[in-house]
């Protein structure tokens, strides 16, 4: 089960990486979120704030990190991920960084939260409701 989750997370991260590979950002500060390791005691929520210039990630701040930070066995590694993943993303200017061993879900949640924020910084659409039509080839429009 963990292997399937890891593969799914890897695929989602790859999609974000591909879409952001040659991105030009709209300068500003953006928030992003993701869900990491969930338990009965924590929601797994990871929220970050990312500040970007036109072509550079300037700053990453972890706002919410509801991960297994107090777990006797994995807590130190989960805490390590909270510090190292944002720092590595800044240093490489890329989401493609190594995860912290035995804190894979927390590491990946941080990557996805940053990816979510960067996606907002690269989107060129305006929020709202849009309507469109398409010609099906039979001369009738679909709505």
CATH top level label: Alpha Beta
Q: What gyration radius follows from the Cα positions, in whole Å? A: 18 Å
Count of distinct structural domains: 1
Number of beta strands: 5
The tally of helices reads 3
List the helices and strands and how they pair.
Layout: H1 2-20, E1 28-35, E2 45-52, E3 57-65, H2 75-92, H3 104-122, E4 134-135, E5 141-142
Any descriptors?
two-stranded antiparallel sheet; alpha+beta; Sufe protein. Chain: A; 143 residues; single chain; globular; 3 helices
Descriptive notes:
It is built from 3 helices and 5 strands; from the N terminus they run αβββααββ. Helix content is 39%, strand content 20%. The N and C termini lie far apart (41 Å). With 143 residues, it is α+β, with helices and mostly antiparallel strands.
What's the short version?
The protein has 143 residues and is α+β, with helices and mostly antiparallel strands. The protein has 3 helices and 5 strands; from the N terminus they run H-E-E-E-H-H-E-E.
